[in-house]
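Why does this matter for the project? Reviewers at the last site visit asked to see concrete outputs rather than summary tables. In response, this paragraph embeds two records directly. Each consists of the residue sequence and, immediately after it, the corresponding structure tokens. Nothing has been edited or filtered.
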Amino acid sequence: MVRVGREERTPRGAQCHLAGSDLPRGGLTASQAKVMEEAIAVLGAQGAVIVDPADIPSVVDRDPEANFLLWNVCSGADEGRGRDQHCSIAFKYGMKRDFNIWLASLGRSAPVKTLTELRAWNNAHRQAGAIKYGQSNLDVSDEMDVERGRARYETDRAKDLRLPATHGIDEVMKSQRLDALLFPGSSGAGLAARAGYPTVIVPFAFVPNDPTPPFPAGFDAQPAPYGVSFTGTACSEPKLTPSRMRSNRRPAGACRRQVPRRSPKL
């Protein structure tokens, strides 16, 4: 993970930290891992100090109640009412509450009056392709009782903030005195997004596009773009993306950004 400098070249002494270095690099292919090593080398060459590891407390916490990886967002039919004790209801609760409020704000122009009516319309027009991929997230959202479920929502939302923010990004950045955290690809975006924190991804390289299971025979898969992402705490965007309108500063690693091969020239 990273403390990113605000100058065009990262100032000497800026702290760069990589999360979980003493843990298996789960999910990274050999080519992706190589890209990350190159990115770290670029940061070091620009004057950043690499501190490895800088583990996020809520990711490595062995207490199930304090581990972010064990606290998912409820979604789909498998986590409907009565089966949602171990996930956050904030998304499905907020969907029904806020969608109905928005519909009410439209007045007479609202095409439907409630989420229930929308679901009914979708079902009535299923053969026309209204819900090609189903609507299980709408279904489990509409199950929520906005009044009776408020206390559970507030409890879950507090945990949604505590694990990724207070016991997560905030804690490691404060203890390590960081400006930003470095993640491979978009792997840290879910952690930051739950807390409402910013993530900036810098395009960096291309890697072989060879998923498991593989593409069908004869499919010519082009190399896939792969970036490095920088995450910070609340309102840390100026440190992650210095404004080009006011200076010539660039995000750390910007010197390695690559234009996709098929992008048209402007």
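We now turn to the second protein, recorded in exactly the same manner.
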Amino acid sequence: MGRFVPGSIFVASLALFVVSWTVARGGSSDALHISQVAPTPRAVSTPPIGHLAEPSLTAERVVFGTEGSYKVALTFDDGPHVVHTARLLRILQRHQVTATFFVNGFWLDPKRDRDGVARKLLLRMHQSGHAIGNHTLNHANLSTLTPEEQTWEIVGNDLLISQIIGQRTKLFRAPYGKMTAHVAQLLSAYDYVHARWSATTEEEQRDPHEIGNALMDWIRKHRGGIVLLHDRLPQSVSGVALFLAELDRLNCSRFSSQLPTFRLVSIESFSRSPSHSATRAALSTAEEVAHRRRLQRVCSTLALRHEQAGNR
């Protein structure tokens, strides 16, 4: 899909996009109106074209992983891929794990997604309890674009995601991690949090076993943080399946030895915003309870399998 039209006709283009989207959905009565889903920003000043200074975001506007916390957030960029993301959702459901998906809007374009499979997949993610994040429309390197193009990449994708899941996302991750001062202003104006990451595994050059092993090595060394993976890559999806199975075995071994276990958490658990402290505390308690219950079930199942294998 080509780059979207920027510039002075941005608002008109955005409205036309909504109309096209509604028509593509068959004019359904549940299609959301632009005023319902488009965010209302605070004033954003436009820096000169070519101004690519590194941005300055306040602490509560950036999420980093915390090493040594025994908390791990799984995040996936560049989807939803109609085949590989669908398989990943089944794997996560089997392991009773939720993750964060940073979505590129071009997969959801009705011209590309003629059967609506990718759009249904995004809705399924949301309804299954996974967090949804904005990863721009076209996976653009924002530092190479004009301020108007940067706005379109972020706000256009915001609107598209909102049309599908019925609410805005507050999470953003810049493709390639490339930020600008204008993007920082947009994130503040549209109440976004920029999600960074602690580890990635160079998945394109690795097979599933190498990916799974790299994740386990990182877990053992750093004991917590935010993992970046890509759900458009089949080897990444297979690597995650291996990683989750191995993490269960490690956790059960540590649990039986009364050692701290690794808890898979939402990315919001790493938020440093003072205004989110009460929510974060409640979320942490709920995730800890769910983790303990899941761990008891998983460890009982693994112990039973081990006993059965020993009796053969």
